[in-house]
Write a structure and sequence with these properties.
The protein is an alpha+beta fold and 209 residues long. It has 4 helices and 11 strands, in the order αββββαββαββββαβ. A hairpin with a 5-residue loop joins strand 7 and strand 8. Helix 3 packs antiparallel against helix 4.
């Protein structure tokens, strides 16, 4: 067997060590990049705007409690949010009505007219082209709401979409709340109307680890 000159052996050992070390550094960096975001649940806000009368007068509200699970990991904030699951207790509804009568009516005559309405649940999805959407389960059905989004900075996202309640077979519930609020939903034309279109809005805050 030929002997390997000392200088060649040193170079060989250096090359092997450098390769292994580079691999370890790459693995460490990949792991760090894949786990560099966390979602701040207390800073996540979900709100909506419904509409009444033929003039489409907006009525805003929010849900003060949202439960989040399965927040993932990724090289970007959007990748980390992909697949995140959430559930919203409808009892956390708040519309800031000074009379204190609107929220109980919505809970009784809208959500009460639907099936399995203790929670609104969903999954946040991000497509390969960075198009975002949420799969919402309501009234025993799951449908998709496409979302647009903007960024306040690299850790705060604002999402907006439109929920057409007919897609969840919820027009009966729309008719129910319209009847319960008939006078309040009547415009200057004498027509009482509650729209089946609801604008949804969410603000999500992340933190870098």
């Amino acid at each position: 067997m030929k002997k390997i000159p000392p200088i060649a052996m040193a170079l060989l050992l250096f090359a092997i060590f450098s390769c292994n070390n580079a691999k370890k550094v790459e693995e460490t960096e990949t792991q760090a990049n894949a786990e560099n975001f966390e979602l701040l649940s207390d800073s996540t806000k979900v709100s909506f705007v419904a509409y009444k009368t033929t003039d489409k007068v907006p009525v805003g509200g929010e849900f003060t409690n949202i439960n989040i699970s399965n927040f993932g990991s990724g090289d970007t904030a959007l990748e980390a949010m992909n697949g995140t699951e959430f559930s919203i207790p409808v009892s956390s509804l708040f519309t800031n009505d000074p009379t204190g009568t609107r929220d109980p009516k919505i809970l009784e005559f809208f959500f009460g007219a639907l099936e399995n309405t203790e929670l609104i649940s969903g999954v946040f999805n991000v497509g390969a082209d960075k198009q975002c959407a949420i799969d919402i389960t309501l009234n025993g059905q799951t449908e998709t709401i496409p979302l647009t989004y903007s960024t306040i900075n690299d850790t705060k996202f604002v999402f907006d979409g439109v929920m057409e309640l007919a897609n969840w077979d919820a027009l009966g519930a729309v008719a129910s709340i319209n009847k319960a609020c008939e006078a309040l939903h009547t415009g200057t034309d004498g027509i009482s109307k509650t729209w089946s279109e609801v604008a949804v809005h969410a603000e999500v805050m992340l933190a870098k680890k």
